User: What shape does this take?
Amino acid sequence: MKYVLNHTCAIRLQQMLRVVIGSLLLSFFWLSSTNASPVDTFQFNDETTELRFQILSKELRCPKCQNQNLADSNSKIAIDLRKNLYNLLQEGKTDQEIIDFMVYRYGDFVLYRPPLKEQTYILWFGPVIILFGFIMGVVFVLRKRSKVKANEHDLSAQEQTNLDDILNKK
Amino acid sequence: MKSIIRFIPLILFVLLGVLLYRGLFLNPQAMPSAMIGKPLPNFELPILKSTDRLVGREDLTGNIVLLNVWATWCIQCKYEHPYLLDIIRDSRIKLYGLNFTDDRNAALNWLKQYEDPYEFSIFDEQGALGLDIGVFGAPETFVIDHTGIIRKRFAGPINDQVWKKEFLPLIDTIEAEIAQGST
Assistant: This one.
């Protein structure tokens, strides 16, 4: 009887230990995963589609959360749109068709790379123009400076004869 | 010439200042909807109160229609609700609800507990219609004119101020268009 009691005690202890260790491990993994992106359980038929899903969900911006892409956001609309993206891929839509689908509904805002249009010229060409202006400015200043320096070394005719005299005297 | 060059940094500074100052007062939430000027897409969805009754695009056209996206998970919808009861006193408009990705029982309870301001609410459990018109949250309100064209999308709760500033002028405009069309 005593043995049996001890035995069950041991089993209970073992079970308790297992629960404690298990929950510790679980909380460790849970804590370490809070920073990760949301995980969806989409099943893909092939790797290419899965890759396309990942690329597209990174290229498309979540309309609600403004500074996150679809892949990173946990907002309701991002989850819905990921589901939608998945469905569109399953239907065999091309990347361009999917992007058009999103833009039709949410506007250019959903694109992290804005299209080249009249309104976005400054966005696309602004930096190049500023860089060009900067380079021009630097060239202008340097040229001016070297001209001044060159002038400093030029001797007037009088100075030149004076110098010649001094040199000839030697 | 030289004096102008000397002032270029100052001019640039002032321009940048003006640009950034303006940026302070822009509302990043107020994105223009891609759907403005496009017709309301076709759909076939049940209404919330009786899932046997299917409604579609034609059930929403013919009047000046306000389509209000709401859900029980949406906190701001609770704030907005009393104002919706106010605005339906304007007989020129018809207010429809779009119950967006919601639980049906919860939504029915909500309408029972508060007052139901809608002619009917479309039950969009999967968010299909919501997605088609570019909804990204709730509350959102769309103004659809008598020909079925989406004229406005407003994200956020309606209150008196918003109603007077954002909606009434547009409703007046559409009404003028209706009057012009009928003569």
In short: The CA atoms of residues 152 and 180 of chain B lie 21 Å apart. The longest strand of chain B covers residues 93-100. The domain at 35-182 of chain B is CATH 3.40.30.10 (Glutaredoxin).
